[in-house]
Design goal:
Elements lengths: L15 E5 L8 E5 L10 E5 L4 E4 L1 E5 L2 E5 L5 E5 L3 E6 L37 H11 L3 H12 L19 H6 L8 H19 L3 H10 L1 H7 L6 H13 L9 H10 L10
Helix pairs in contact: 1-4, 2-7, 4-5, 5-6, 5-7
Length: 272
Amino acid sequence: MKSSFRECPGTGGRSRFRVRLPPLRSAVLLTLAVACAPAAASAELIVFEDGRVVKAAGYSLHTDELEIVLPGGGSYRVDLSRVERIVDDEVVVASVAVEDLRPTPSAPYDLSFSEARRPLFGTAYDAVIEKAAKEENLDASFVSALIRAESNYDSRAVSRKGARGLMQLMPATAKRLSVHRPFDPESNVRGGVRYLRELVDRFGHRPDLVLAAYNAGEGAVETYGGVPPYRETVGYVARIMTWWQPRETPPAVGTAVASAASAGPGASPAPK
């Protein structure tokens, strides 16, 4: 993916915010070098379920309503069930470049279910996670890492944005996924894993893109052609990738045979 840079206002050069997503089995390296000062004012993007996006100077939650503060002054309230997600706007960091250093999307990642890939943290919800992951054919360890980032395994968690439960489903998302009891662990995880399945089907077995879409939305990933340069999203992806390591898919039989043949007469034959 091609990196993009924006000039910092009031400076003569460029500053970078780099996320290094390394090859398989390597740790995630997060390098921050933001040289602009002062940083741009904080802002949020309010994404509605119908696809509309509103830039807000701030917001506050009032039970089942969200009050949106407008950049020019004033505010208004909307039903929280109409809001799909809230993410930091890219202007929070004055100059951003997100560089994907992984191999191309054809690299052999595998996010499908495997009995050997158990939830990572030994919680009371492991059985719930494994059941939902198996039903949707997803890596249970991947799901468990996402839950840690979302709620730290607090089934009653409510974020300041209004997201609820273990997998922090917004009311609009919960409604679409038929999750009527967001604080019920089994119902919440089943709905969240179903959403993850949709994202894997859409973006392939690319954990960075799937995580970014879960956090910032599918539209943001497609707009930027990769992990969107939102401070919240960049940190979210990097944090989860420090807990969870991708699993390689086995090479195709033809590839293994060709590799053995090219190694010369003394090489061991490819396993069958």
